[in-house]
Design a protein that fits this description.
Layout (H helix, E strand, L loop, with lengths): L9 H14 L4 E2 L5 H16 L3 H20 L12 H17 L4 H12 L13 H21 L15 H5 L18 H5 L2 E2 L9 H13 L9 E6 L1 H6 L8 H4 L3 H11 L9 H4 L2 H7 L2 E5 L14 E6 L5 E7 L12 H14 L6 H9 L17
Parallel strand pairs: 3-4
Antiparallel strand pairs: 1-2, 3-5, 5-6
Helix pairs in contact: 1-2, 1-6, 2-3, 2-4, 2-6, 3-4, 4-5, 4-6, 5-6, 9-12, 12-14
Length: about 400
């Protein structure tokens, strides 16, 4: 199952589509990672293979998301601080739960699938800005499909693989503070309904988005000449500053993890989109020059409602002699549950991704079908899919 002429078995299709889903860094954000980049490819592949309905796919997504969120809830510290990429370490487990739901595994089989997936959890932040970051998502989707299929066939794993003192929660905990004892909330406190998802408006690391919103708001408020901007100061959280590791990027991949590039792109191009995430644009002399004028400052004040985030991100533009040309503070990011993208904004994003991937599908027809997924009787009826 691939969107186009190619075909692959479900595990490989999940792997390929998962990697593709994260390759542009233009996905969604929630539970410290990018849930849909893993869950959707795994669910699409398995749903097509077994002929599941759209409603079953939605239920499977909820199962995967809630499993992922339950594990996140049990860790008070930020996994990024230890070098873990949460999408890689939670994704395999969430995908296994989703596929177990699709295949209607019993409780014991589902537990085996989750435990097996836990041993396949991986993903290092040191690989951000390379092709390996999206590989984390694809590999997790593949692991979820394979784990559920093996469990259904009787393959076993430890039923306490998550909570064991030497299990998943302890192994990935940054400071050994993971909660391995409290009762499970999944199914009683629905985190998908409570926390939702943020859908990215820009194809860069989500840590740049509040500052990007602020910079673009300043540009819309008045004409600014990039050449007259002597300094751009961005204050953000320690976590964001750590993740945005590339201060002088030379490639489009590196630029996705650079606050300096995000600010330079917005000032010079008036946007930060897929056309700007090219090696040629990143290396333009004016872009490189402006990046050197961007300063990132760490704001230690943490938002109590959103761990790992500053209370707000602030962008300040200075001209000659330190004259303030503009300043803005941004708390809510566009695309978040509080400021969701409209249907046409989602369509514009969807269309640009289809074009970037040169997928041989009728984009609008597929988009409309996905937006009414609950009405789909067979996953195989989605436009652009073919039988495995």
């Amino acid at each position: 199952m691939l969107f186009g002429a190619g075909r692959a078995s479900a595990p490989e299709a999940a792997w390929i589509n998962g990697t593709a889903a994260h390759a542009l860094d233009f996905d969604d954000v929630g539970q410290r990672g990018h849930p849909s980049t893993v869950l959707v490819p795994a669910i699409l592949a398995e749903a097509e293979a077994i002929g599941a309905s759209g409603e079953a796919m939605i239920v499977a997504y909820a199962a995967g998301y809630e499993t992922w969120a339950e594990l996140v809830r049990r860790e008070p510290d930020q996994h990024h601080n230890k070098g873990w990429h949460p999408t890689g370490i939670f994704g395999a487990i969430g995908a296994a739960a989703a596929c177990a739901s699709l295949r209607r595994l019993d409780a014991t089989q589902a537990a085996h699938a989750i435990a097996l997936a836990a041993s396949q959890s991986a993903g290092l932040m040191s690989n951000f800005g390379t092709m390996t970051k999206p590989f984390h998502a694809g590999r997790s989707a593949h692991a979820g499909v394979v784990s559920a299929r093996l469990a259904e066939k009787g393959f076993t794993a430890s039923l306490d693989a998550l909570e064991h003192p030497q299990g998943f929660l302890s192994a990935v905990s940054p400071a050994g503070k993971a909660d391995r004892e409290s009762a499970i909330e999944a199914g009683s406190v629905w985190k998908l309904a409570r926390d939702g998802l943020s859908v990215k408006k820009y194809p860069l690391c989500f840590c740049t988005h509040r500052a990007l919103d602020g910079m673009l708001d300043l540009l819309r408020a008045g004409q600014l000449d990039a050449a007259k901007v002597c300094r751009v100061t961005v204050s953000t959280s320690p976590r964001y500053a750590t993740i945005l590791r590339n201060h002088a990027p030379q490639t489009g991949l590196e630029a996705k993890f650079s606050m300096e590039f995000a600010m330079a792109s917005a000032l010079i191009a008036g946007r930060a989109g897929l056309p700007e995430l090219t090696d040629g644009f990143v290396r333009q002399p004016e872009v490189q020059d402006l990046m050197r004028r961007v300063v990132v400052k760490v704001d230690e004040r943490e938002d109590p409602a959103v761990p790992g985030h500053a209370v707000y991100d602030e962008v300040t533009l200075e001209g000659e002699g330190g004259k303030i040309l503009g300043r803005v503070q941004v708390k809510q990011v566009r695309g978040s549950p509080d400021l969701p993208l409209g249907r046409e904004e989602l369509w514009a994003k969807f269309e640009s991704c289809v074009q970037a991937g040169t997928a041989k599908v009728k984009a609008r027809e597929l988009f409309d079908a996905l937006m009414s997924l609950e009405d789909l009787t067979q996953a195989r009826n989605l436009p652009g899919l073919g039988n495995v």
